[in-house]
Amino acid sequence: xxxxxxxxxxxxxxxxxxxxxxxxxxxxxxxxxxxxTAFQEGMVLSKQCxxxxxxxxxxxxxxxxxxxxxxxFEESEGN
Length: 79
Description:
Keywords: Cytoplasm, Exonuclease, Hydrolase, Nuclease. Bidirectionally degrades single-stranded DNA into large acid-insoluble oligonucleotides, which are then degraded further into small acid-soluble oligonucleotides. It catalyses: Exonucleolytic cleavage in either 5'- to 3'- or 3'- to 5'-direction to yield nucleoside 5'-phosphates. InterPro entries: Exonuc_VII_S, Exonuc_VII_ssu_sf. By secondary structure, the protein is mainly alpha-helical. The chain has a domain at 14-22 and 31-72. It contains two helices and two strands; from the N terminus they run H-H-E-E. Strands 1-2 form a two-stranded antiparallel sheet. The radius of gyration is 19 Å and the shape is rod-shaped.
């Protein structure tokens, strides 16, 4: 059997799939082996979503200076 190339999912697709796994597991009618596999898939999806959110946060905290250079946005301590 040929190995399929992994297609990267969007954040939204991963989140929907993760929610479906959680719902299936919460019902409690999943056989143990299937539950373990689903749990492992869920952990991978969770990590992918977390990584995507961290990248987005880093991108959003950058601002452009007057010289069109990127600078890290720093929150004032009063907030």
